[in-house]
Specification:
single chain; Rossmann fold; 11 helices; five-stranded parallel beta sheet
Length: about 260
């Protein structure tokens, strides 16, 4: 199924904060149950967040992992590769961050930088980013074949909303650090990024690695939609009820505890 940013329409907004927080709380409880199931069954899951600067990736990720056990979820903010990583294949640094059995790995930006920022900013040769579509899909196919679930989300905001969020960051001393010259330079090339994103969706959307495009002009709606998609992908066909306990252990434990508190 082909995705295009231009086809996204504004979603239904929440009537108030109370309605948003009530739905978010339900999703967070489901995320916790899912994480516990992954831990008990030694499953592995990956969540990829891509999107425009200031689209709300960090906020969505914070809400998604807020109730989770930090020992079983790892959030990887991806920036420019370090010197030792630049001398290796671009997927090297992502292999290092794949989840262990029982864990979830969340990528705030990802290997898709190869066909987005590196393509648009001419940080790699055309032959390299053109080859990367096949490499990325094969990378994900290997993970899926090994039992890893992969959820991919792209947060989309309109140019008007993006500029407003940039302005808000600039005027807020606690958020000013989030706005950089690179963000402003990228905005000037927004059309090129949109074209690259559409091609990325067309060439890397596959059976076990579907893209979900989320209209994120409303942060509340975007967070709920993004987390819902992650739950749908990582939780499909999985029973998240607590695992049964050994009856013999249960009886023995109750007997010992009664004796100790009697």
């Amino acid at each position: 199924m082909a995705h295009r940013l231009s086809s996204l329409k504004p979603g239904k907004r929440f009537p108030d904060r109370a309605a948003y927080e009530a739905e978010l709380a339900v999703l967070q409880a489901r995320m916790l149950a899912l994480q516990q199931t992954y831990w008990h069954e030694k499953r592995r899951g990956i969540v990829v967040f891509e999107g425009w600067d200031a689209a709300g990736k960090g906020g969505a990720i914070r809400r998604m992992v807020q109730m989770l056990d930090p020992r079983g979820v790892y959030v990887w903010p991806i920036a420019a590769p370090q010197a030792d990583e630049q001398a290796r294949h671009y997927l090297y640094r992502f292999w290092k961050r794949l989840p262990l059995p029982g864990a979830l790995a969340v990528f705030d930006r990802s290997w898709y930088g190869r066909v987005l920022v590196e393509r648009v900013e001419k940080l790699c040769a055309p032959k390299d980013w053109k080859r990367a579509y096949r490499e990325i899909v094969e990378f994900e196919r290997q993970l899926a074949a090994d039992g890893v679930r992969i959820a991919k989300v792209f947060l989309h905001i309109t140019p008007k909303v993006q500029l407003k969020r940039f302005a808000d960051r600039l005027e807020d001393p606690t958020k000013r650090w989030k706005l950089t010259q690179a963000d402003l330079d990228a905005f000037r090339q927004r059309d090129a990024y949109a074209h690259a994103a559409d091609e990325m969706f067309a060439r890397t959307d596959w059976k076990h690695g579907r893209w979900r495009l989320v209209q994120a002009d409303s942060k509340w709606r975007a967070r709920v939609d993004a987390i819902s998609h992650v739950l749908d992908v990582l939780g499909k066909g999985i029973d998240t009820r607590p695992p049964p306990i050994d009856p013999k252990f249960l009886a023995a434990a109750r007997k010992m505890l009664r004796a100790g508190t009697g």
